[in-house]
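User: We ran a pulldown and think these components assemble together. Before we commit to crystallization trials, I'd like a predicted model of the whole complex to look at. Sequences follow.
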Amino acid sequence: MGNPGRSNNPEMNRLPFRTRSLLARLLNVSDSSRVAFGHNATHMINLGIRGLVRQGDRIITTSMEHNAVSRPLRYLEKLGIIELVILPCSTTGLLDSEDLRHALKQQKTAMVIVNHASNVTGTVNDLTAIGSIVRDYDAYFMVDCAQTVGAFPIDVEKDCIDVLAGPGHKSLLGPTGTGFLYVSHRTNPEPLIFGGTGTRSGLDYQPDEMPDCYESGTQNFHGLAGLEAALQYIHSRGIAAITQRKKELCTWVLDGFKNIPGLILYGKTTPENRSPVFSVGKKDVDIADIANALLDDYGIITRTGLHCAPWAHQTAGSYPMGTVRLSPGLFHTREDIDMMIEAVDSVFRKMK
Amino acid sequence: MNRPEHVVLLMQSVHQHMVLEEILDRLKIRYRTVVKPRQLGSDCGMAMRIDTADLDRIRQICEHEKLLVFGVFFLVDNRWEPYLG
Ligand SMILES: Cc1ncc(COP(=O)(O)O)c(C=O)c1O
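Assistant: Here's a predicted model for the assembly, 437 residues in total across the polymer chains.
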């Protein structure tokens, strides 16, 4: 490929442009230059936080955040740069809008950062309601949409979002090594990484133009090509149909799990506003034994432990042991789900 | 001075260049994306060669779409000069 973004092959400039335009359309971003690409959600969350936070800022976040959000915030708190307010969510992971309003009323706040959906409980927060409250108090609204982008509708205008970060490789169905950041016209985060952008090369300083200012160094063109194809698929299937499918998956699994003796499900037991990640456990049983049995006997891959989200497990009541998380995807069929429920049922009956 | 047949348009950013390409494709206005002439800067950016007859219309499109034209140039005696027409 040579250096695709820098050499004289305009097609390689058009590739990120097309991917950017498709993503912008999905999020109702009217100016696609406000969308920048990076390595993953963590990279983009760090850019959003580190680029906007100023000495003395008060930041409000929730008790459901992933380490991708909590660790950068804790670091800035430790350095004495920010005051951090962590709002407790319900055990299912829902943020109470009134708690947020109360916290915003108390003191001038620079930014509110929330998880759209928890990677532990799957609970989807109401961004439109939260966003309008945050806007009332003139704070920046930042959203970690790692668990929802491509699966649930996100509208940066309607939801009053100033900063939105997500990965390309989860529900956007793209390759690993891709992530994105949207920033509204109200915000201009400082770049995290400075260097060659392929533009304004005579300048000693980082150019201001979006998205170049955030995309220094050779970009992941292979990843963006995959993400373009994935976004075309999502647009052709339609986000409403995808959301509906996710709800069906939730309905089938929740229905099946109801009758499994001893199964503890962390999170909502109803399919509305829920993404299909199911954190389960059994009293006095090591989650590793459950996971091993599911893998060895049924070939079902799960993820055990704290899922990089200790705060969320503390909130849900599954800390420090963690859970076994099952996360069926868009392409699983009803038969796959029935087979999964049978497997979980059989494993749970055996574990005493 | 005779009007040159072609001029070269430099946009504010690569992104804006791409937005303009998309619009011109849609409107079937002819252009060619070319490597920015060295004399117009040490930048590794791109430029757009258009028919001079289309310049006014393209300028209007840019204004309407809030795309910033960084400069318009034409070649005289092997030198690139700003085109003021
Ligand atoms: C809620 C949440 N935020 C952030 C991340 C980090 O995403 P990435 O691995 O793309 O950096 C994840 C990934 O698991 C997540 O679930």
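Residues 59 and 84 of chain A are 5 Å apart (CA to CA). That may be worth checking against your pulldown data before setting up trials.

User: Thanks, that helps.
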